[in-house]
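Researcher: Quick one. two chains, 534 residues in total.
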Amino acid sequence: MSQASGYEAWIISIGNELLIGKVTNTNLAWLGRKLTLLGYNVRRGLILSDDIEDIEWGFRTALGSNAKVIVSTGGLGPTFDDKTLEGVAAALDEKLVLNEKSLEEIRKKYERIGLSLNPARIKMARIPESGKPLYNPVGTAPGVYITKSDKHIFVLPGVPKEMKAIFETQVERILKEIGPKIFFIEKTFTSIGIPESELALFTNRLVREEPSVYIKSHPKCVESRGPIIEFHVTASSRNRREAEEKVERVVEKLMRYLIEKGAVIEE
Amino acid sequence: MSQASGYEAWIISIGNELLIGKVTNTNLAWLGRKLTLLGYNVRRGLILSDDIEDIEWGFRTALGSNAKVIVSTGGLGPTFDDKTLEGVAAALDEKLVLNEKSLEEIRKKYERIGLSLNPARIKMARIPESGKPLYNPVGTAPGVYITKSDKHIFVLPGVPKEMKAIFETQVERILKEIGPKIFFIEKTFTSIGIPESELALFTNRLVREEPSVYIKSHPKCVESRGPIIEFHVTASSRNRREAEEKVERVVEKLMRYLIEKGAVIEE
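Model:
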């Protein structure tokens, strides 16, 4: 069951290091949280290798979907295996062109540490024709912002510090402007003593009563006091008070049922 | 550039909690590492919502790919939003049928804690027609193993402890039997003092000289001693000694170049 919002977002993570398990994908979780809090319905994540054809496939698939927003991370650096912009250009049927503004910023950054431009550094300024550079306040590889028909594509670096800096200084503002102006409300609590399978019929009924509220139960370990379940109840609405009331109503019903069944609640 | 192996694997992670950033996807990294060490080329990851249509899309896409192995996690529990097996059955054009062996195991597990079967618990024993249950040694929801034409599909729970237990007791053995019998060799080291963009031309040449070795550079922070880069050099081969020699050769060339340029190496 997806959130109420009709504004879908996809996240694309690029890098072999994610697929071979060298690096855990914290960028996707961070972006998913940010997009959700901005009212977007994060619908899908794609983890792609550094292969151009795979990257092209990922962006073509996202461009053919209902996603209004596509955010990618990774593959923007100076080395031979940083191929994201080539893949994006192919998916958009565009060419890569040298962006003078980006090149000037890259040149200045290297100049400051006593280095001059070389082909690897110039490569980072070659972006798809319709792209606009996003300034990287903490690293060298710029991000890229592309609008294509009704879609907004943000291509960000994979280094978490750089990705977050570009997101917070530039992407977030754009997402607020084009976004659904929706409030995302959530409440988490823990129930001890009742197995998840004891609750399925009740939560099923509750979801039918409140279809716009999302109830997720995460079974944790079983300890001496019995099975532990973490509940996460969420709702989205253009009206903050309405979303808050929905979540409160569902949490109250859930807790009452759990306590009747003998559970202990921890908030 | 992908690994030498022709045995592709896809990983599918199911659960809204991953997309909204409530949970970081550690399962994908864990499975990616395991599959890589077993000689598979982990080619793609899909992160899907708990929606049946999204799950069906994910499995249809993977079934239509070159993947020999598909491993999924999540959505096998007793609650209304655990829909993975419905989505898998739809993608396979199969029905869900009650598996008597699974049902008996689930019944026994609940009996031990003084509970009887109910619709939510019986649901966990309904698996696609061609599926075989995988015993869950630490939880209640069984996994499912399906072979379809040349593909091997492993459907595992999302709770990391349960996923790992089923993988290590049953899946790993099957993957070894059907696998490429390939050795994956890796070496990691850190270079301090040289920016990544200084090395691109050299690593580019090195990769052309040794096309079956994969060199990945991960830029880390810049500290007073200069930019820090972590290198990860990997190779796969049916011959362990051959893969080791390749990695050693490339690491030696890389380190020699870095030291010439003035970098400090930390192993």
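Chain B touches chain A through 71 residues (CB under 8 Å).
Researcher: Thanks, that's what I needed.
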